[in-house]
Amino acid sequence: MRAGPNYRYEDVAQFITTLVDNGTLVVGARAPSLRAVCRQRRISLSTALQAYRLLEDRGVLEARPQSGYYVARGRTSALRTPAISQPPAEPTTVAISGLLLKLMEYAGDPALVPLGCAIPSAELLAAGRLDRLLARAARVKGLRCNTYTEPRGDAGLRREIARRATQWGQAVSPQDIAITCGCTEALSLALTSVTKPGDTIAIESPTYFGVLHTIEALNLKVFELPTEAATGIDLAALAQALKMRRITACLFASSFNNPLGCTMPDEKKHAVLEVLARHEVPLIEDDTYGDIYFGKERPTPFMALDRRGSTIYCSSFSKTVAPGYRIGWIATGRHMQQVLERKHALTLCGPALPQAALADFLASGGYDAHLRRIRRAFQQNIAQMTRAIEKAFPEGTKVTRPAGGFVVWLELPRPLDSRVLLAQALEKGICFAPGDVFSASDRYRNCLRLSCAHPWTARIERGVATLGALARSQTRP
Amino acid sequence: MRAGPNYRYEDVAQFITTLVDNGTLVVGARAPSLRAVCRQRRISLSTALQAYRLLEDRGVLEARPQSGYYVARGRTSALRTPAISQPPAEPTTVAISGLLLKLMEYAGDPALVPLGCAIPSAELLAAGRLDRLLARAARVKGLRCNTYTEPRGDAGLRREIARRATQWGQAVSPQDIAITCGCTEALSLALTSVTKPGDTIAIESPTYFGVLHTIEALNLKVFELPTEAATGIDLAALAQALKMRRITACLFASSFNNPLGCTMPDEKKHAVLEVLARHEVPLIEDDTYGDIYFGKERPTPFMALDRRGSTIYCSSFSKTVAPGYRIGWIATGRHMQQVLERKHALTLCGPALPQAALADFLASGGYDAHLRRIRRAFQQNIAQMTRAIEKAFPEGTKVTRPAGGFVVWLELPRPLDSRVLLAQALEKGICFAPGDVFSASDRYRNCLRLSCAHPWTARIERGVATLGALARSQTRP
Lengths: 477, 477
What we know:
- The structure is a homodimer of 477-residue chains.
- Chain A has 477 residues and is α/β, with parallel strands linked by helices.
- Among the domains of chain A are: 8-71, Winged helix-like DNA-binding domain superfamily/Winged helix DNA-binding domain (Arc Repressor Mutant, subunit A, Orthogonal Bundle); 127-363, Type I PLP-dependent aspartate aminotransferase-like (Major domain) (Aspartate Aminotransferase, domain 2), CATH 3.40.640.10.
- Helix content of chain A is 43%, strand content 14%.
- Chain A is built from 18 helices and 16 strands.
- In chain A, strands 3, 5, 6, 7, 8, 9, 10, 11 and 12 form a nine-stranded mixed β-sheet that branches.
- In chain A, helix 10 links the parallel strand 6 (200-205) and strand 7 (221-228).
- The radius of gyration of chain A is 23 Å and the shape is globular.
- Mean pLDDT of chain A is 91; it is low at 1-5.
- At the A-B interface, helix 4, helix 5, helix 6, helix 7 and helix 9 of A face helix 4, helix 5, helix 6, helix 7 and helix 9 of B.
């Protein structure tokens, strides 16, 4: 297929590639039809077809039957992806809380370019239909709902969650689901149900700072596992740790781990479950990002693969439709009684009307269409972000290629210090998450996470450019 | 004022007293006007006035300027009030969780006569205006509110809470307030901010089982103080405990303690604060019921009296307007950073729209009128309940006379076992809270708490009668 540039079809392929490279055509966008290309470039249909097949071979376009050609991914980025992480081989006490409340405050500050917290923007989510259902529930169900929910939370909502889970082969009874205040409460309930203070939890590294903060608040220790940006934890390292140490539980993101975006392939998930079963160690699964996949199929959660029933599944609606509603859930058969006891003791139950409204929203259909729309939006944002990073950041910067979610992780050439960079960025009105808060062992100082959770604008483009310039001036010899 | 029964005004006074005794006139109800009494009883205005003054002297009626005469309280009940409690003089590990989830489930079961959980009925609260404001907020503010709130919660709501607190002399900045998931989360954040597992907390005895459950979940011990049904804890016992033991914090209800209904007089509150200051022990104040007072003035919270700033104040809107909204708050200057850190780690933040709606509700006025209405309703319910108890329960039953809130506490003659009574009552479709769950030391087996949180109906009247009959058959020799 190698061909000189003077072949017509190669010219056409180059033209389409340029459109993708400069952002005119974003990931998932429909490419010009063959007929349109023939007309515009004054070529024959067979030449156009030859060009598009070349682009398919190169992975720039993909054909969809009866639909046409679509941009398969951004151009092959010149940036490398980060290598597998190398955390310490010892359990670590967690103490990262200092900066986190600040990051939350920055996230609420409209004056800052929002590259910090992984909170999808309300404009992008466009959850007006859910709000209208809440308004209706408040009018129609206000009297009925002005009381505490049953301990597990709204029964209708739990039914809808159970019904959706069957789509990806997860058989869970509404009785085995409890509604929580976001995934944060789900994870804290899961952790306290299977651990006591001082215990050690094995986690991915880097891992979401909110999880580290929960672990810190519960006085647990972490054992950070080497983690690869595409396929997740190092299985051998996990097996070794379980053999050599007292690991009380594992806490892994099943899909599109925040911040790396990694997802373990199914075989690896099976292998993880097997080694955990051998050591009788429970798995806490954080599947917050599972619905935001860019590929053809939703990754399968551990819980759907676990025949032993030792997985405690945690997720939420905060990343897909309603961060403002604070509704998450926890699914577990074996540990439900402990979970309910602790929930009753610490928060009693969540508010009734938002749960009723979300149940109505799920029951009325349209959530899948909503998910398709936001997946496309996040995928396009990541493509734009990757392009902007490549333009602006210093040579040698590595960046992840997540297949879902809406964050990217950057590894910058040393001696970059992302805390220093953050201070400089805040002065320029830009916020991001510095790398070290994703580790309990003060790693990743030269890394940072950028959120792609807002619609792409010139302001964000400029923000990334400024951030890259600041990074360049820090890393320049 | 002593007069023979053949005086006309005494006849009239007896007639009105009968109306109060048989429940025709309930506490807070308006008595027939003087003119109406003259007409009905064919007496002169001066005789009517003499009768009503006698009833005032006897505390049956009270005159309200420019308004007329009102029933001051139920008739002097024949039942005695419980004596001061006698808990053990040793710290106790808490383990009461078994029954509590069941009690919550009973509370949600419409088939049961609802004398169990202290959850005000939605009919009685009639919070439709709040629901309409939620509907409006969902329509108007949905986009703005579909994100995480700032760490402390909705700023408008915190301003309104601070503004209301000034009414009873509590000067608190909105910056020193954080919104929580009901008073339960407020108390659990307060406890974890000043204690670590294994520490001992001094509490009232009996005390609300939810508080005991929170303490149990946090692996704390309790030191239960002797507590009197009108004026609260035994100050000398507190002073002694602080002197002799390592008490890390105290947790007291400032007003209308659940279940006793006791309120410490201001001088006692001052004395408590003084002895706590001497030992540098912080006070966690649970003021959930403070707004539901039947007297002329709201009791002053500890926080308003504490010049040292060592009180952590917790309250909620669950008892006064919206159990279904799950909105409480915690007020503290000194411990705010720890509170926010822990809240971030365990639940992140609460949902935004219910907070915005409640802020609108408070700002728009009318909450005070709402409170006046429900205070009257709860006071009447308690009067009806007391009367029904006296009719039905065995001789020797003692009952509290709360000056606020909506629960009464019964001490029955031994060998009554309230767990056995509960099992029998559930079979008859009646729910209540057995006495032992209000103690960490398996006390109060012969006690029970009845909730007066639902509008008084023949069904509830029958329920109390049945319960009394069951108790009688258990205590009969």
